[in-house]
């Protein structure tokens, strides 16, 4: 279904390429070439999604994103930051400003189109609403499960959460900033992974570290293997080389005085 897309970037050649890509797929494309012009277009045109550069004249993309997401009338419009700024701090600030996705240049055209059209679909269906990760709120997922059952379909709700000790040990060593980065990366990797297994599955979030997944019971075995494999890979990448070598964090036990190994965080698969 055609949608209204706003592209904001001071690189006019890139804007032309993106405009052609999306117009060929039937979308209406609006263009702006600096931050102030882009924000004005968002407020006046109310696009269904925004592809936004960061480094631009007059007002940078972080500031535009933050101001739009703070406006109750505009906050649900998905924003994809498309930028050459690619450090972990850059990405952190992008999501902290409320971006729904962060894509670094150079980018893969097909992947960007796939991401934008999935965000558009979810936006129109009201599925993406959980703060900085952009996942559906857990209550939305629960409501969808009820609707599917009322329609005579099969559905299974799965809670995905961590054991407390590995989580607390990670927070003590690495801090809340890195924990937040990990949760965000995990949210997007899981979101993409479940789409590969099932187009009807829905991933949501109850709190910063608790996910909820709605699936068809017949898909449970394949989905469980995929989700746990992806989560283990992402989580382990946020530990340093020494901890990866040990497969956990060495911690001194206060009672015995000996070192104990606290294993990596991992998601627990629990049927609701």
Low-confidence stretches: none
End-to-end separation: 35 Å
Q: Which structural class matches the secondary elements?
A: alpha/beta
Q: Output mean pLDDT.
A: 89
- Give the C-level CATH assignment of the largest domain: Alpha Beta
Gross CATH architecture of the largest domain: 2-Layer Sandwich
The gyration radius over C-alpha positions equals: 20 Å
The outline comes out as globular
Percent helix:
40-55%
CATH fold node name of the largest domain: Alpha-Beta Plaits
Could you give the order of the helices and strands? Answer: EHEHEHEHEHEHEHEEHHEEE
The number of helical elements comes to 9
Largest sheet at a glance? Answer: 5 strands, parallel
Assign the CATH superfamily of the largest domain. Reverse transcriptase/Diguanylate cyclase domain
Task: Provide the number of structural domains.
Answer: 2
Strand order of the largest sheet: 2-1-3-4-5
- Total number of strands: 12
Work out the strand percent: 15-25%
